[in-house]
Structures are given as C-alpha cells and as structure tokens.
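lol forgot to send this yesterday, sorry. struct tokens for the thing we talked abt
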C-alpha cells in the first residue's frame, strides 16, 4: 500500500496530473464497480452535448422573459387591494413546502413596478427585456419556459435546481453527473463533465451542485479555473519542467507500475489506476489546447466581449465552453454570479442597478455563444440551458428590491432539437404563480436527458430508490 501511495504522490508532485480534484475523478472512474456507459443511450439522441448556464442568486422573471404590465398599473398597492388578491390562495400548496410563511410575508408587501422595458423580439415575438438586447437578437432560437416552480424559499434552491431535491433531503446526483453516468465521454483525452466559473457558496449547496454523490466521484464535474489574463488553467506542469523531462518521468512511472502489475496480474484496480494516470498525462496536452483562446480570431473574441471589461470574464468562459463541446465534452456547466454568499443576482434592494449590471456581464457572451454555435453548425447538436434557482416577488422589498420567489419563474433552452421562438407555460397577471403547464425543476432534467437519448428510469442504481418526481417529464411542447 505504501508503494501505491508514493506512486500517486509522485504523479501529483511532478505535474503529471492537472490538480487533485480532476485526478481524483480519473482515479475513481476506472475503479472496481465503476462503468463508463458509452453507447448507453436508450433511443436516438437529438443532441450530443449540453452547455448549462446557471445564474446564481435568482433572476427576476418579470424583468427578463415574463413581463407583467399589471405591476405598473397597481404599483404601491398591496396585493389584497388588486383584482388579483386571490393569487395568494394557491391551489398547489398541498404539493409544496415552506410556503405559508412566505405567503404571509408577501401579503404585507406592496406591488413593485417593472424596472425595465420590454420588446417583442424576432419573428416569433418573444418578450425580452431591454436588459438583454443581444440575446433578443437570438429570440427565434429560444424556447422560454415561463412556468417553473421549486420548493426551497431560500438559496438552497440552487442545489435543488441541479439535483431535484430539497436540501433537507440530503445530497443527490446532479443533472451533469447523470448525463456523465449515462453516456460517458466522446473524447478520451478530456473529462466528460467540466465546470467553469465559481460554484454556489457552501450556504447554498456549494460544489454539491456539480457532484455525483452516490453515483461515485468518477462522475463529478471537474472544475477548470481559467487564470485571470491567461488562457491556461491551473493544470500546467510544475514551473521549469519541460515536456521531454515530464515524458521521461512518466516512462519511469510506467515502469514502476509495471513491476507491480507483474506481481498482481489479475488486479483490475491496478490496471484501472495505470490507465487513469495515462489519461491525466494526455490531458496536459488536450486541456491547454482546448482553452487556448489565442487560437480564436479577434473577431470571435470580440463577439464574446473579450475586449470589454464588463464581459471579458464570462465571455472567456463561454468561448471556452464552445471549444470544449467542440472537442467532445458532454456536459459543460458554467456558473455566473457567485459571491461567497447568496449570489450576485440576489436583489433584495437596488434591483434596477443590480440587474442592469449583471445582465450586461452575461447578455453579449450568451448571445455570442448561440450565434457562434449556430454558424459552426454545432447548435443542432448542442443543447444550451439558461436557468436560475427561482424568480423574484411581485411585491417590493427594501423599497427598491424583490424577495425570493419559488412559485413561478422562467428558464429557456436552445438548440439540440428544441423548438426555437417558443413561449411555453404562464404565470398569472402579477407573475406570482405558475398557472399554465407548471413544471418542477426535474422536468428540465428530463428534457435534457431525452434530447441526449437517455431515459432516466433506465439509470436506476441498485439499492437506491428514486421518487417519481425525481425522474421529471420531458417538456414535449418545446421539443421539435
């Protein structure tokens, strides 16, 4: 056992790996009982890859993709003073948790008017707020789902959106991990599930939002940190180590592994570990090449906003995401807005200033991603999902903000066999409840898996019984 420990330590110290998190995933991937479910699709897929964009903190649905003119008409009045006072009597409470206290709080608030204008965009006439001018150009590629709901009234909803479970239930596999488990990789030199951007804070799920939990760490998302001002992440070899020297080190490592393999020829775990080391070594070439944005034209870099301070960081992440799916990474999860707390989209006060700023950071890069994928012929096989943990309240908080709102909010999908220019579902006139074609968060999971050719009911784990709603239902109305 000591020999095995020194071998792993030697790999890390000489730069043959790309960081302990990623190497851990590689070591476990080929461990006894772990399977790479390549070619495990259950029916013909419409998509090969997923880019999952998550806005941390709770984006206001009324100021993004679900305008509510009634908010302006009744601004300053309590909900009970409007013709819509009945919205507080939810017909859905028997299926949802923790809502009574939230209802009472909202009953006492006054209606807060919309903070930005809207336009109907594209031939489809989808409503897009003026904070999303670039994305509005892509309206005919979007399927906006306006009728999402979740349970957690606090930011544990960030974890719930990724696992389908309330945080009080414990930790469960995330959507990216299920995809990784179900399909495996398209490129043996890269992980099948990569994470960009800072994850939610520990208060709100933390790294559990991209972990596999009982599926095993081999299906965790592998974080790549893009160094500021550099296209090279933290996976580079130790400073001063040349590739030739590194290759010789790896040859020595292979010899050491070979000695043990001769002694234990039937040890499957040893063979798997050797294969993992080899993959980690190969990734030192594959990953830096994938994230080297200097290979992109200045026109493309400017399209993503790399030439502007406000959009540079997120633009680099989304351009990297495109390069990763182009090389066969199955699932790329990109976080925006992490701030060590609830998230930068959380707008209990100064919503107008807050959303104007954070929307500007992501609007151009997201539109660039869709346009870039489309012009390269990749949008048909790449499913892009934009989501957030919940919406914001119709009532005001701190006079110029909105509180958390899990009763009805919006997400959108594009590409990967999804209809473009579609609005599905609805909230009531105040944006309070999802009242038409309601969808719990796992319906988004089910739609993603359906487009990838996966039936979640065929991915059962022995000894792990899932709830009916854990599976979700594909949203057939938005599938082409």
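and heres what i got for the seq, position by position
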């Amino acid at each position: 056992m000591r020999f095995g420990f020194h071998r792993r330590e030697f790999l890390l110290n000489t730069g043959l790996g790309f960081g302990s998190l990623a190497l851990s995933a590689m070591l476990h991937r080929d461990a006894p009982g772990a399977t790479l479910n390549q070619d495990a699709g259950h029916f013909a897929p419409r998509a090969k890859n997923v880019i999952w964009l998550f806005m941390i903190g709770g984006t206001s649905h009324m100021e993004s993709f679900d305008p509510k003119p009634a908010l302006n008409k009744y601004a300053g009045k309590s909900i009970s003073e409007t013709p819509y006072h009945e919205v507080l009597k939810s017909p859905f409470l028997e299926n949802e948790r923790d809502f009574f206290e939230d209802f009472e709080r909202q009953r006492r608030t006054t209606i807060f008017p919309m903070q930005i204008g809207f336009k109907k965009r594209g031939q489809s006439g989808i409503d897009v707020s003026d904070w999303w001018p670039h994305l509005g150009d892509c309206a005919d590629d979007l399927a906006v789902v306006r009728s999402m709901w979740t349970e957690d009234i606090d930011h544990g909803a960030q974890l719930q959106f990724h696992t389908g479970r309330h945080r009080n239930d414990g930790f469960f596999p995330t959507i990216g991990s299920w995809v990784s488990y179900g399909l495996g990789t398209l490129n043996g030199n890269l992980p099948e599930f990569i994470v960009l951007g800072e994850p939610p804070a520990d208060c709100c799920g933390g790294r559990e939002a991209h972990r596999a939990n009982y599926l095993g760490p081999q299906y965790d998302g592998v974080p790549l940190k893009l160094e500021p001002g550099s296209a090279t992440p933290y996976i580079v070899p130790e400073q001063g180590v040349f590739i030739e020297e590194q290759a010789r080190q790896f040859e020595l490592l292979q010899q050491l592994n070979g000695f043990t393999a001769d002694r234990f020829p039937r040890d499957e775990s040893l063979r798997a570990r050797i294969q993992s080391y080899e993959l980690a070594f190969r990734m030192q070439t594959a990953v830096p090449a994938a994230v080297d944005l200097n290979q992109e034209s200045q026109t493309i870099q400017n399209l993503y906003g790399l030439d502007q301070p406000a959009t540079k960081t997120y633009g680099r992440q989304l351009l990297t995401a495109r390069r990763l799916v182009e090389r066969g990474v199955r699932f790329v999860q990109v976080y925006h807005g992490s701030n060590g707390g609830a998230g930068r989209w959380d707008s209990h006060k100064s919503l107008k200033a807050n959303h104007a700023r954070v929307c500007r950071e992501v609007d151009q890069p997201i539109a660039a991603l869709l346009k870039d994928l489309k012009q390269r012929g990749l949008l048909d096989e790449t499913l892009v999902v934009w989501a957030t943990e919940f919406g914001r309240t119709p009532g005001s908080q701190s006079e110029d903000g909105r509180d958390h709102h899990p009763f009805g909010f919006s997400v959108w999908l594009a590409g990967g066999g999804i209809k473009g220019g579609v609005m599905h579902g609805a909230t009531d006139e105040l944006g309070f409840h999802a009242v038409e074609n309601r969808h719990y968060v796992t319906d988004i999971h089910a739609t993603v898996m359906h487009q990838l050719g996966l039936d979640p009911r065929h991915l059962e784990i022995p000894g792990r019984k899932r709830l009916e709603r854990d599976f979700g239902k594909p949203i057939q109305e938005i599938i082409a």
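The chain has two domains: 1-34+240-288, 48-233+291-460. anyway ping me if u want another try
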